[in-house]
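Q: I'm building a small set of examples for a reading group on sequence design. Run inverse folding on the following structure and report the sequence directly after it, with nothing in between.
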């Protein structure tokens, strides 16, 4: 019994280290800064500020996921094969940490930004974050696992998040109205008629990517062996 408790304690300590636990704190600072930008009387600055709050939170989650399970960057994953527990348990632990830590920080950030911007409810701000966060967690996780290195996952998350915020997504929606259903950072104030369908679709894509990450672990030995070249 003692050895089992010790084993799980070690796994959780390693999980906390692997997911870079302090990134959500940095993200919270960014959320507050862009929340202050949203105080501007300019409607574009207000829109960008609130979208950036959600984008920062989602981007942090995606980067944490990229770090969480990149086998070439985590030699300890190979040692876990000798443990009497499925490797998928390790992924579950790390995802729970990512979602738990970021949920706490995002709620704090939503409350702070609601005070700064006068947004009707903190829940409305928090709802901006949930679906894109799940999507970018799935993207960062799958890219990091398939490329074997966290740096690839982080790069893709940063590029995708930046493109969604500042890459002309609104122009794409203007040309192709159906694209609003796929835009992770869709502004609910501008497109209230599409926001529910959008959130369901974006969230579902994120869940599908996370499910695919678990599928990659169905044969853990080849997965980890490919990372070490053995």
């Amino acid at each position: 019994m003692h050895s089992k408790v010790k084993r799980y304690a070690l796994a959780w300590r390693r999980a906390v280290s692997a997911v870079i636990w302090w990134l959500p704190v940095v993200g919270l600072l960014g959320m507050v800064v862009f929340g202050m930008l949203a105080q501007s009387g300019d409607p574009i600055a207000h829109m960008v500020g609130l979208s950036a709050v959600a984008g920062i939170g989602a981007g942090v989650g995606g980067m944490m996921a990229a770090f969480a399970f990149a086998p070439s960057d985590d030699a300890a994953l190979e040692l876990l094969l000798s443990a009497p527990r499925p490797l998928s348990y390790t992924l579950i632990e790390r995802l729970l940490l990512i979602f738990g830590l970021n949920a706490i920080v995002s709620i704090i950030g939503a409350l702070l930004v609601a005070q700064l911007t006068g947004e009707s409810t903190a829940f409305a701000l928090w709802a901006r974050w949930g679906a894109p966060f799940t999507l970018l967690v799935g993207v960062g996780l799958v890219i990091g696992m398939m490329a074997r290195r966290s740096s690839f996952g982080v790069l893709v998350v940063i590029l995708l998040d930046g493109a969604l915020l500042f890459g002309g997504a609104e122009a794409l929606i203007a040309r192709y109205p159906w694209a609003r259903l796929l835009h992770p950072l869709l502004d609910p104030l501008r497109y209230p008629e599409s926001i529910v369908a959008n959130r369901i679709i974006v969230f579902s894509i994120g869940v599908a990517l996370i499910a695919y990450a678990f599928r990659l672990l169905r044969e853990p030995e080849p997965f980890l062996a490919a990372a070490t070249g053995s």
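Residues 2-228 form one domain.
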